[in-house]
Fold this sequence. Notes:
It is a single chain. This protein has one domain. The protein contains six helices and four strands, in the order H-E-H-E-E-H-H-E-H-H. It has helices at residues 5-11, 21-24, 52-64, 70-77, 98-118, 134-145; strands at 17-19, 29-37, 40-49, 81-90. It has a four-stranded mixed sheet with strand order 1-4-2-3. Strand 2 (29-37) and strand 3 (40-49) form a beta hairpin. The relative contact order is 0.17. The model has no long low-confidence stretch (mean pLDDT 88).
Amino acid sequence: MALTFKEKCKRSNDMKIQIEDSVFSCKRGVYGIFIIKNGCKSCSYVGKSEQLVIRAEKHKLDIENGKHVRSLIAAYKDPKATILISLLEGVPYCFDNYYKDAQRLASAENYWIDKYQGMNQCLEQVPEGKRPSIDAWENMKLSQNN
């Protein structure tokens, strides 16, 4: 019988990226990806998902393959750092209105991003949707100062 993703994580010798049990016990919600180093825990990424376990697995693979935000890739390569994926808030369906249910999840994610960015964490996080590239933003910033 094949192992579940949770069982694979528990049996893995590579404890570099840990997924808390809370992620496995909640289907829909907001999660954080934290770097733990020298006794300090810092949030690098906040996300939302309708399927937390599948999304956590994708993040784990992306980090291992060097396809994520810089701070998580650096932490993965750092022998003194550990990465932890943790549930921040479960956001169950209310089933009162499709659009309101979708917005509740998006609003919860924005709350947590704002909270951690207010603590100077999660600073590689950008909102979904169309936005200028970082280079275009830097050029606009320079033109404002001239």
